[in-house]
Structure formats: C-alpha cells, structure tokens
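Expect chain and fold; see below:
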Amino acid sequence: MSQYNSALTQVFTEIVATTLPSTIVTFGNVANAAAEAASHASDATRKHIHISNEDSVPDNPEGFSTGLALLSSPIDQLPPEQSSQLIGTLRNLGTRHIAVALGQDARLCFRDLIALGFRRHAVIETDNGALTLYTYNLDTYNHKRAWNNAKHWANPEMWGKAWW
C-alpha cells in the first residue's frame, strides 16, 4: 500500500471511529479498505455498502440516514457532473456524515464542494502530492439563523404547529 493510500486509510479509519455509524457507504478502493479495516478493529456490527460506480447508489435509502459515506479515487476522476450527482444523491438520501478525498488533479473544485454544503477539513501531504479532505455533517452544515424563530414569526402562536 502506498503512503498516499496509507495516510488516507488512517484518516478514514479515524472518521469511522469518531462518527460510529451503523451504516458505511464507500466509493473507491481506499475508502472500501478503510471501512473494512475499521469494521475488523471494532466490535460494532456495521452494514457496509460498497458502490462500484456512480450509477450504483441503492434505490432504497434505508440505512443512509444514520450512516457515513467515504469517497476516494476514482471520485476525483469522474466528470464533475457525475461526481456532484453521486455526492448530492448520498447527501439527499440523508447520509449524516460524508468524507470526500480529492487529489491535486481532481476534476471537482473547492467551489463545487462548498456548494454541496461541504467544508475543507484537512490537507494531507504525501509523497504523491497533496490530498484534500472535504467533510459534510448533516447536523452542522447549516447554522441556525437568529431571525428564524417564534419572535420574528408573523403569527408566533402558530410557530411549530403549521407547515405548508
């Protein structure tokens, strides 16, 4: 295993250890290896779904809402539309945590991932070049706004009671 893969596997394994997902969805060999290593190192029973190409996202979203998605190369070599669609689909299915590792020659850029609600988490320096890790957390990607509460609501007595 190259140093590039080893460093990324270690980072992904740490993410699995901190998020403690019941379901892990992986795309890419390094992401898959990290999920398998984390499963062997832990006593926890996890469901593991490996996506082999951008079109193989399961139609049944059960389990995604409490899970983690780890995406590594070849996600950075897909056309930007396909990789954005794969990432967006995982996010829209309710995946709580998503980590995407992109190399220097990635076709997706910083702006694409920020538009999907991601944050630049870390830059990992390796002998094969820098690797940027972007993360998405459903619980923190969208901050609470001060104005969005009963005090600023047109009918405060209806706050939390009616949706249209």
Residues 3-19 form the longest helix (17 residues). The chain is about 30% helix and 25% strand. The mean pLDDT is 84. Residues 8 and 93 are 25 Å apart (CA to CA).
